Amino acid sequence: MADDSNYSRYSAPSISDIHYRPFVGTEYKIYKRRWFIVFVVCIVNMANALIWICFSPITNITTAYFNISGMQVNWLSLVYLIASIPCGFTASWLLDTLGLRISIILAAWLNVTGALLRSLTTYTFIPSDMKYPVLLTGQLIAACAQPFIMFCPTKLAAVWFPGSQRATANTIASMANPLGILLANIMSPKIVQTKADMPLMLWVCTGISGLGAIIATFGVCSSGPPTPPSASAAEVSEPFFSGLKKLLKVKSYWLLWTVFGAGLAIFSANTTFIEQILCPRDYKNSFSGLCGALMIAVGAVGGAVAGLFVDKTKLFEEVIKMSLGLATLFGIFFTLISRIRGHPILTAISISGFGFFGFALYPISMELAVEITYPVAEATSSGFLFISGQIQGVIYMLVAQYLAQPLPANEVILPNACRTNGTSGSDISQDWTVPNLFFNALAALGTVILIVFFHPHYRRMRAEDVAKAESILNYDSTDSSHSGASNRTPPMS
Known about the structure:
Elements: H1 15-18, H2 34-53, H3 59-66, H4 70-98, H5 100-120, H6 128-150, H7 152-160, H8 166-191, H9 198-219, H10 231-234, H11 240-247, H12 251-278, H13 285-313, H14 316-337, H15 344-373, H16 378-403, E1 405-406, H17 409-412, E2 430-431, H18 433-453, H19 459-481
Antiparallel strand pairs: 1-2
């Protein structure tokens, strides 16, 4: 694959290009079962996110139940980011080599195994000083599942869906993860109001994970349909290591890799720390959970709108630039308003705006990564974007915890929701203004870089235009030699 400068963004196919398309003449067909595969991916993806973030909205109760510090609670989230970096390379290879089915089933069973191990910490046969190590081990096992299911949406969209539905399918499957975070933000504060409620929440997570394992094992019977839905799906993707070499030559991909990774890292940090940001200003767990839920719910709407819009217009570049810029502005608004007590409506509006525009970036960026690196395999190009977010997430979250400051002297004596439910809150009652400003600066820098320097070229759409042109030429040639066959129709595209 040559450098971007050798390709025009929407260049018309030439005869020399057309000559080499191996998938010309294939009949393309779509299957109803593709939506069931999307459903399975959604359940497994949602369960994985639920396991990941269920402790964050109830940090103070978690510290009391397991007799641990706020930093140790944060590690229950951080372990997801750390584990997914080495597992991400394995997931990319497995998806591109063995296909969707193995990846979905493996993720589902890692989910339920990790969730079950966490639930066992509620029983007395595990010594008190071993509960946290067992809990962290269960969290680690579920964390290993994350890349195996998070890398599926782009592969699923490419293998099972036609070009007119790919961004939509990718959006639906990708948004299941934030919907799992939404469920955690609603469910955790609702179920766990005292320490005694913790076992129920853990077993609910186990039950949802078990459902995902059952329907994945018995419902996903193949990695792809009998016949391809589009020209690009009919072509064999680049082998994993060959694809890696080609990625190195696509400059626009690495720009997207850097900026998207920063955005995903900031989202992970906000999701993890939102209760710790708001509780020192006397916002209770239920409100912190509501803010997290609003960010996800409104974000899911934003992602759906962006996916449908891009499917119709193919304006990938324009959508991600606008979305990142507006998400940055709402992030700054949240930083300012969350420092002030007694403004729940403005706080909710700011986090909702951040979610609406921030979530639009995820599925569109994943789909765009496949477009600009074609024919590199989907799990490789989109998976490396996700790994970028995890690498940067680990770094930024550790930096943020270091930057968090003690509460100002005039606020120490004020009411503090971190101190409810019998916990002192001494290690989680901090001022998160400086970490939030750090995230705002990163987002603003990424926005400027993306707007000024990012000008992608859509290789997959160009290849499909080439295939369509050759199909028409082949049809015209065949039709002219069979002039009596007036009822012939061109092949599907």
